[in-house]
Structure formats: C-alpha cells, structure tokens
Design a protein that fits this description.
The protein has helices at 19-28, 57-60, 63-78, 153-174, 177-186, and strands at 12-15, 35-40, 44-51, 85-87, 92-95, 98-107, 119-126, 193-196, 199-206, 212-215, 220-223. By secondary structure, it is α+β, with helices and mostly antiparallel strands.
Amino acid sequence: MSDGPVFPPLLAGAQADDPFEQACAEARQGCDAGLVLYDLGPSVLQVAIVFAPEVPLAQAMAMLPLCAVGFQNALGALAPPEVGVHLAWNGDLRLNGAICGQMRAAASESDPTQVPDWLVVAFHVKLLPQNDTPGDTPDVTTLYGEGCAEVGSVDLLEAWARHMLVALNRWMDDGAGPLHKEWTGLAWAMGEHMTHGDLTGSFTGVDENFGLLLKTDKTTHLIPLTDLLEPAS
C-alpha cells in the first residue's frame, strides 16, 4: 500500500476529484494560501495550488511560469538524464518535444493592475497512454512513453511542491530576474514561429512580466500572460 504525499510545512494538501475547480471554490470561500489539491489518478496526475498575492495581477501571474519551472525541476531530478523537459508560453509541458501536460490559472480579478484576492495555478501531467495506439498522436506523450515509468505520481507531486517553494522563496527575495532567466532557458520554440489567437510571428522572448513578445513583419506584439487566465466558474 502506498502512502499519500507529504508536503512542506507551508503547504497543506488534500485529495480532490477536480483539483482546479475545487481550488477555485475553496479560494472563493477564503481558504488559506498554500492549499494544494491533487488527484493521483492512475493515468493522469492533477494538481492545483491557491496563492494569495500581495502584488498586482500582472506581477502575480509569474506564479504560472514559477509552478512550471517547479515541475521541470522536479521531473528533471526524478527522470532519466536523457529526458528533456521544456515549457511552452501557453502552458504546455513538453517531454522530449511532445506535450505531456498543461498549466492553467484562474484568479478572482481580471484587471492586471489590481491585486487579486486569490490566484489558482494548476497543472496536469499524463502518466500512462490513454489508448493502445499512442503513435496516432505523435505530438502527445506520457511519462511512461518517454522512459519515466519509474517516476511515481506521489514522488513527482512531493518533488514539485519542494521545488516550487524554493522558486517561490527566491522570487520573493530576489524578484523575477532569476525566474525569468531560468524559464527562458527552458522555453519551448524560442526564436521559432508560433501562433497565438489571430497573430502569427516569431517568438522572440518574454517581457519582465512574462508577456509574450511576438514579432511579425510590421511590429512586435506584446501578449500579456493574463491572456491565459481561465474564467473562475
């Protein structure tokens, strides 16, 4: 029988059928920051965490790439050394080039200049193939399919929590600079063409608030990270 995850002192964990939706509901009810809800499903790991930002939403959205970097650090420490983990600006988690999961976020506030009451960041990662013919979807993969069969969901969740807290403490002490540098080094498709909404151009980087810099023939567009926020239903 496997034990449940053990979290660092600043975090409180609980199981949930739908971690993202329940975390948003708990946040609306005024739960403490640091609540981590999770679903250790047999084929998909789902995780959500509640933050209580003290800065405007534009800056608080750094928690999205921060949690993604925490995931990369955690899986990088557990997976075989030949496994490459990259982070896409839109939240895709990529393993050896293929999508293995997704980051998402919701907040009490949509105005980037206002301090939100709460911010929820969540992710899911596919552990096992969803069907018997994974070759039919070459751009989608799983931990099992990329040689990470020995990486357990509990170990990955615990490692993510630890690495996320390290990144959070560094962000609070040193600002966004170190996180910006680390995330940029892990960014997927930097310098390549990409499409966001009705814009297609070259992904040249991100600004100080992790807004997407998309260069077209005529100009460079800035798409704020708040564009990725989902409605808090």
